[in-house]
From TrEMBL:
Family: Belongs to the binding-protein-dependent transport system permease family.
Compartments it resides in: Cell membrane
Segments forming domain ABC transmembrane type-1: 93-303
Membrane topology: Multi-pass membrane protein
Pfam families: BPD_transp_1
Keywords (A to Z) from UniProt: Cell membrane, Membrane, Transmembrane, Transmembrane helix, Transport
Keyword Transport: yes
CDD domains, sorted: TM_PBP2 (cd06261)
Transmembrane segments annotated in the record for this chain: 26-50, 57-76, 88-118, 130-151, 179-198, 231-248, 286-306
Name of the protein: Sugar ABC transporter permease
Annotated GO CC locations: plasma membrane
Chief localization: membrane
Length: 313
C-alpha cells in the first residue's frame, strides 16, 4: 500500500513588517515631535539668541533689536551692584536659601518622615493623612496662594483670629517675616509629592526584610536607617532633582508677597518676570532664563553623580 505525499501549503506573500513598524512608529511620533519642536526646541534656541540682544517689549528696540554680545550677562554680574537688593545677585542668593530651606530641609525631609510614619499607622489614619497632604498639592496654585494670603491677613486673617482667641498678640507675618512665610507655604504645598514618592518606595521593599529586623530586635530608627534609606536611595535622588528644580523655578510666592516687601522675597523667577515684563528688558530677561537653565542642569548633574557614587553594589 503506497502513501501519497502530503501536499505542501501554498506560500504566502511576506511583508516587511519591520519596515512597516518603523513607518508606523514614525507616523505616531510625528505629532509629538512637532509639538516638542514648536513649544520647546524652537523657544529654547530663540531665548538664547535674544539673550545676546537688547530687545525690549516696547520702543524702537522691540522691532529692531541690536546685538550686544555678552552685555546682558555682564550687567547681571556687575560687581558694583550684584549684591544690592533688587539685583540679580541678591535674588540668586535668596533663591539658594529658599531652595535649601524649602526643598531640601522642608519638602524632602518632611515627605520622607511622613512616608515612613504612615507605614506604621492603621490604614484609616494613613488614608486621612494622605488625603489632607495630597489636597495641598492638587489644588490650583492661584487658589492656594490667595487662601494663604487670606489666612495670614493682618486685619481679618484666620491665623490672627486664632492667636487672639488664645490671648496671643496678632502679627503681620507677610510684612515682618515674608521669607519664612513663603518657605512654610512652599513646604506645606510640595511635601505631598515627596511623601507619595517615598511611600511607594517603602511599599516596594519586601516585608520580610522588616520582619527579620523585628526578630533581631531592631528599633524603628534602625530599620529606617539600615534598611529603608539604603533601598530607596534612587528614589531620594529622583525626588531631590525634581523638587530642587521645581522650587528653584517656582513663581507661586509672587501671589503672596509680590516679591516684596523691599525685594525680600524676590526669587530669581520673580526677578526674571519683573525685568522682562515689568521693566520690558526682554533681552536681559532672556539672559536670566538662560542662567536659570544652566543652574538647573548643574543641579541635575550633581545629584545624578552623587546617586551613582553612593549606589549600592
Amino acid at each position: 500500500m503506497t502513501t501519497e505525499p502530503l501536499a505542501t501549503p501554498p506560500k504566502r506573500k511576506t511583508r516587511n513588517f519591520a519596515l512597516l513598524s518603523n513607518r508606523a512608529g514614525a507616523a505616531f511620533m510625528l505629532p509629538a515631535g512637532l509639538l516638542v519642536s514648536v513649544f520647546v526646541i524652537v523657544p529654547f534656541f530663540w531665548v538664547i539668541f535674544v539673550s545676546f540682544t537688547n530687545r525690549t517689549l516696547i520702543g524702537a528696540t522691540a522691532l529692531n533689536p541690536q546685538f550686544v554680545g555678552l552685555g546682558n550677562y555682564l550687567a547681571l554680574f556687575d560687581p558694583a551692584t550684584f549684591f544690592q537688593r533688587g539685583q540679580f545677585g541678591f535674588s540668586l542668593i535668596l533663591t539658594t536659601q529658599f531652595v535649601l530651606a524649602s526643598a531640601l530641609l522642608g519638602q524632602a525631609l518632611l515627605g520622607l518622615l511622613l512616608a515612613w510614619l504612615i507605614q506604621t499607622v492603621p490604614p484609616w489614619i494613613k488614608r486621612i493623612t494622605e488625603t489632607f497632604v495630597i489636597a495641598a498639592w492638587i489644588l490650583p496654585e492661584v487658589v492656594i496662594g490667595f487662601a494663604w494670603f487670606a489666612f495670614l491677613d493682618y486685619d481679618n486673617g484666620t491665623f490672627n483670629m486664632l492667636l487672639e482667641s488664645l490671648g496671643l498678640p496678632p502679627g503681620d507675618f507677610l510684612l515682618q517675616q515674608p521669607f519664612w512665610v513663603i518657605v512654610v507655604f512652599n513646604t506645606w504645598r510640595g511635601a505631598a509629592f515627596s511623601m507619595m514618592l517615598f511611600n511607594s518606595a517603602f511599599s516596594s521593599i519586601p516585608p520580610s526584610y522588616f520582619q527579620a529586623a523585628d526578630v533581631a530586635g531592631a528599633s524603628s530608627w534602625q530599620k529606617f536607617r539600615d534598611i529603608g534609606l539604603p533601598l530607596i536611595r534612587g528614589h531620594i535622588v529622583t525626588d531631590l532633582i525634581l523638587i530642587t528644580m521645581w522650587t528653584f523655578n517656582t513663581f507661586t510666592p509672587f501671589l503672596l508677597t509680590n516679591g516684596g516687601p523691599s525685594y525680600r522675597t524676590e526669587l530669581v523667577s520673580i526677578y526674571n518676570y519683573r525685568v522682562a515684563f515689568q521693566d520690558f528688558q526682554f533681552g536681559k530677561g532672556a539672559a536670566v532664563g538662560v542662567i536659570m537653565m544652566l543652574i538647573n542642569l548643574a543641579f541635575a548633574l550633581i545629584y545624578l553623580s552623587l546617586g551613582r557614587k553612593r549606589a549600592p553594589k
